[in-house]
Amino acid sequence: MLICVCTIYVDCGRANRPELVEIFYQFYHYACTPGLSHECDGNSYLNSICYQFKTRWDNISEFKPNFQECTKKIVNLVFLFDGSGSMTPSEFEQNKRFIKDIMTTLKNTSFEFAAVQFSSNTRTVFNFNDYKAGTALDKLWNEQHMSELTNTHKAIQFVLDNIFENPTAGATPDATKVIVLITDGNPSDTDRKDSIKRSNEKNIFRLIIGVKNVDIKKLQSLASDPKENNTFHIKDYNGLSGILENFQKRIFNIEGSKTNQSENLTKEMSQTGFSAVYYKNTLVLGSVGSNNWRGSLYETVGPKSEEREIQDPTLDRDSYMGYSVAVGNKNKNLLYFTGAPRSEHTGKVLVFTEIKTNWKVKATIAGEQIGSYFGAELCSIDIDSDGNTDFLLVGAPLFHQPQREGKIYVYSSYKEKTDQRLPSRGRFGSSISSLLDLNGDGLKDVAVGAPLEDNHSGAVYIYLGEKIMGIRPKFSQRISASMMKMPSNLQFFGQTIDGNMDLGEDGLTDIVVGARGAIFVLRSRPVITVSAKIYFHPSEISTYNFDCLAKEDIIFNVFTLTVCFNKAEATHSNTGALSAGMNVSYELNVDPVRQRSRAFYSDKDKDIRSLRSTVELRNAQTCFNHSVYMTRCHVFTGYRHYTSPGKMSLLLIDTQILINTRNPSNSCKNVPFEKNCKKNGTCVADLVVDFSFSNSTLVVEEQSYCLVTIKLSNHGDDSYNTSLTIFHSRGLSFSMMTLVKVKHL
Fold first, then answer.
1. pLDDT at residue 363, rounded to an integer
2. Stated pTM of the model
3. Are residues 145 and 87 in contact, defined by beta-carbon separation less than 8 angstroms?
4. Residue 55: in which H helix or E strand, if any?
5. Is residue 409 a contact partner of residue 474, using CB atoms and an 8 Å limit?
């Protein structure tokens, strides 16, 4: 159904699944790539950038939806260092130098520092206000060694009460809070006030450095999760300088992130624009990586680009909501469909509706097979263009059965109607697109991509729309990459599809198909409806000319058969398709259901009961005449509306114009025999039978015979299927019967 391939070469680079959204009434286009990577203090963020174009692809503007800026949130870090008697004076000084080196390295960053020494008692060395005032290092150098016990839990409690929660200490209320604990001894007290539990509840991040002979398991109980990663052990205080670089990287990674280890990633890996759809001044983007890859939709409304996020908080992490998105309408209510192909491992489709300016989940559709990626592709279809969404097509490109990969589901009112799958390993259903009417039946059609078919070269399947089932069960056309007459290394033909434009301005739908490194424009062709009718002259077969008393079996013409072809364009092109000629091959069969035909097409050969012809149709109606013959003596089996000697089959061989697939390929018509009835077309016969014998007496002997003359008369209407039964004694046997005379009354 599609020919005339136009190829546009492009360099796709490393862009991750760019999506193109058409805006017809403003003559703008949007293109978004979800692969915008940017660094933030050693962390990689993955967001997106969208471009707005005019119809001639002049870049008007660009914007970054749901973009995560590299914000440096304040980090309040408290050094809680051991001052017990197990530490020598030089080791105590090494401890202070280690603290000074870290503060110097992180100078002019978002870190703010405080320091607390603990032993049997705990005291503040300097607080956050001292650090801001520039007096912190002086107070650190002047700090004296306590040289007593190691009351670690009491010290942690002191930091919570007197540093983080004491306004006079200068802590920032919404800062990320960190404790770096440096000790060479095991805790000598117990956690009577649940200091560790309180730290966890307040999201205080804890890094532990154990020096010399400490019980590492006990120290790990003080660290934040994962405890093994947040606990360091060195043999002596000289090792502090050895771990300085790695330790600095560990705490440096805390800066620049809006979240800490107990919070979720929100927009950092959002990849907004992974899927996209535009509807009535609203751009809806799939934000598949938002909220720890739980996913969301991101709505940009109006010329001022007012932004709103749409979520389903009940989804698990890594559900990938927003992997696909489609828009629908039901009774003037706007609907958003979005796929979450990793939700609960089988995949899920969510249907959102707006209730009092808030988007709520109206329905969910669950997949059936683990790992099938159910919901990876969506396509909503208004099959009859009445403004209401009739069907939702859901792709599961990794659905697997023996020798099959990929499946699409067709839902009506979110209830499954049917499914389509193909015997291939091509990821059938990786792309699904609603198409403007291709065949002129007034219904939307569908294209489905299988980009890994034929050893990864790809293929596209065309399904014609069907009002009850959504699409017809069998595809009408398969377009493979090999048909594109491209180099053999072409890959992934059918990865993306769009078919909602008339690029050639010829009144016909064109389909754009994406492949690796190339875009193909498939031009559709006019679709012609050809109807055929059979006429007969005369309209009834006269029985008057049939005469079985004639000595010669004469062949004569009983009627003339006229075949008329009418052609009309089902599509609405401006290509002048009807004015072009088209070739039609047809076949005529007479009495096709009978083993022995009563009529034929030649006055010289009674065996010619079929006729084939190829003709050119140039006008809206073209007719052809054929003569039909019978023999003068035809043994009738009774009156009925006999099967027409004109069953016609159409074999269309035109190479430029397509015939409507719903066009009937054959036509039958019955030709009645003449009826001579006087009352309302109902025949009433008046049959009289009489007989006489040649001898008045029958003598039974060898070689003797008796001649019976039977006279059968009809004084009423014509009689058909008339039978005469003769009964005789068992001693007699029937010899023969001869027709003597026929007289027409």
1. 92
2. 0.66
3. yes
4. none
5. no
